[in-house]
Amino acid sequence: xxxxxxxxxxxxxxxxxxxxxxxxxxxxxxxxxxxxxxxxxxxxxxxxxxxxxxxxxxxxxxxxxxxxxxxxxxxxxxxxxxxxxxxxxxxxxxxxxxxxxxxxxxxxxxxxxxxxxxxxxxxxxxxxxxxxxxxxxxxxxxxxxxxxxxxxxxxxxxxxxxxxxxxxxxxxxxxxxxxxxxxxxxxxxxxxxxxxxxxxxxxxxxxxxxxxxxxxxxxxxxxxxxxxxxxxxxxxxxxxxxxxxxxxxxxxxxxxxxxxxxxxxxxxxxxxxxxxxxxxxxxxxxxxxxxxxxxxxxxxxxxxxxxxxxxxxxxxxxxxxxxxxxxxxxxxxxxxxxxxxxxxxxxxxxxxxxxxxxxxxxxxxxxxxxxxxxxxxxxxxxxxxxxxxxxxxxxxxxxxxxxxxxxxxxxxxxx
Length: 415
Ligand SMILES: Cc1ncc(COP(=O)(O)O)c(C=O)c1O
Fold this sequence. Notes:
alpha/beta; binds pyridoxal-5'-phosphate; 37% helix
């Protein structure tokens, strides 16, 4: 372990939560170098929705590598990119009657968000963006400006202007517990909230602690944006690619955002890839106006295409995700009521679930106790008070039960 402490930056974090050296991984499992097995209910914060080293995706990747196909190509045309775009169009966009241009903005979720914010400002000629308390959109300065966490914002070292944070899930029509709703702030002559370029929203806040927006609220928000000519950006980086059941997390609300951000599981294999999906008439970029060296990593196109072909030809994965999610919801509800004197709340959608404690001290202890039992669960929320469950969508029913039993044991022991 010494080399990590001696040479790696102090900024490292997950390795402090799970102080092991991991080596192999398969399906729902990670193995440390001593052979210890860990059931992964973290999945790279939803970057591994199809599990570790998924065999179908691995085969496609190995074939591609073996044949010396193109790896790096900036944004040149490649066969791998053509296959990805064609498959994405045929299996994801067309069946959902969604018409988006696809921008490859750079490899991470924050890149997708930066591109979305820049484009919304360029299209509207306005600067201000509405974001929500508890939001997480990434660590680059633009994305950080719309991220809620004080801790992360504190790392910026400069002011983070041109964004206003309003309560997530607040009454849009207002007044909401004494504070006016966004709708009134947008129309009131005494308000500065009249020049909004965009609203950026997560349908379920992942890092924020699995805060689930109601479908009605999302639909109202979309209508409000439309009425005021505000670009609606849904950040589906963590909740997209089937995490909540359907491919896009906003489908259940019946809305069509103007811009959608995807990353994490879009390559399906944990390889870096991000997409900013743009309503065609908003795609007013000039060639090269927003660029970068790693925009469309061909191996990620290959595994991403394979993932779409294997899992999104039909509705089997979506139904399985919802069924397993219901099982987890029931188990968490039972667990929440099982320890007298400890208040816990369970919430979630699809295979994104949270068990909220009153403070971060308890939840961190539970996360560590779970780790000691061979289960990886992350904490989330403004004070880390939520145990966040993001198992692979491909997890078996037996593994779901195994994970729930390990979590229950950790909770009972700590509480
Ligand atoms: C909703 C959301 N948006 C954006 C990001 C940033 O993605 P990345 O860490 O790949 O930059 C994350 C990361 O967790 C996220 O959950």
